[in-house]
Design goal:
This protein is α/β, with parallel strands linked by helices and about 280 residues long. It is built from 12 helices and 10 strands. Helix 4 packs across helix 6. It is globular, with a radius of gyration of 21 Å.
């Protein structure tokens, strides 16, 4: 997907101002920024859910706002997990809710059932145990996982998620992030808005930083999350590992410059500083 000079406003206020970016096949992209910077609006626009004042969004080279564009293609190829997906649950059973997005697909009944089973299992559920339960009877975290499963069941080529980690326990969160990484290995593109910088540092390959409706940072995790000064300019702190490394450098415990963005990288740097060794000899 390619976004070209996208401008979105509500009334007299611009929420997105001339935003341009490209999402390649199999990319895991994290979007960060303080509340109100335009992250959610950008995802909704990319999903074709908002009117835009100017600009284009191209899906496989076709403008999704063109009158000739088949919106069914957008629904089939792009999946969107909203910030509070559990509020969208409505069916009598979990199986029916997760399978709702497949209602008008050309899949057979058996194929739809297998999709639902697969999606629920990817979110850590036992299909047989949960399929007949009411989604409204589940806990908050379980509702969120069921709602996410409903989007996964459609197997989109581009999966966009707005704060999907909220409400997930640590184990479910890590399993989900590893699953997303696995999807990118199959060519699925993942775009995730999150305030959990540590999760993005560990799993995303690219980070986009936003401020006041503009993209102000775009690069690898190390380039973006290791730049503490630039992150503070957009109202964010780096990963906990980067903050720890910054403190250690300021007190002369660690030499050099640049900030490791994961605890694994920080550990290696500390070991290297203590032993004077580098690379495989650490």
């Amino acid at each position: 997907m390619e976004v070209r000079k996208l401008t979105v406003g509500y009334g007299a206020a611009w929420v997105l101002d001339q935003v341009s970016l490209q999402i390649g096949a199999g990319e895991f992209v994290g979007i960060v920024g303080c509340t109100g910077c335009g992250k959610t609006t950008l995802l909704k626009a990319m999903a074709g859910l908002l009117e835009v004042q100017d600009g284009e969004i191209l899906l496989d080279g076709e403008n999704i706002f063109s009158r000739r564009f088949d919106r069914a293609v957008l629904r089939r190829k792009v999946g969107m997990v909203f910030q509070y997906p559990e509020y969208q649950l409505f069916a009598q059973t979990v199986e029916k809710d997760v399978g709702f997005g497949l209602k008008y697909s050309r899949l057979s009944r058996e194929e739809k059932q297998e999709r639902v089973r697969w999606a629920l299992e990817q979110m850590g559920f036992s299909y047989e145990e949960i399929k007949d339960q009411s989604p409204l009877s589940l806990s908050g975290g379980e509702k969120r996982r069921v709602a996410i499963a409903g989007v996964l069941a459609t197997k989109p080529e581009l999966l966009m998620l707005d704060e999907p980690l909220a409400g997930l326990d640590p184990m479910a969160r890590e399993m989900f992030l590893e699953f997303l990484e696995g999807l990118t290995g199959q060519g699925v593109s993942v775009v995730m808005v999150s305030h959990n910088v540590d999760a993005l540092a560990q799993h995303a390959a690219r980070i986009i930083g936003m401020k006041q409706g503009k993209i102000v940072m775009d690069g690898s995790c190390q380039e973006v999350l290791g730049d503490s000064r630039a992150l503070r300019m957009i109202g964010l702190l780096g990963s906990e590992a980067a903050q720890t490394a910054e403190l250690l450098r300021a007190n002369g415990v660690l030499p050099g410059s640049g900030l490791p963005v994961t605890y694994e990288a920080l550990r290696d740097e500390i070991i290297g500083a203590l032993t004077g060794e580098k690379g495989e000899n650490r």
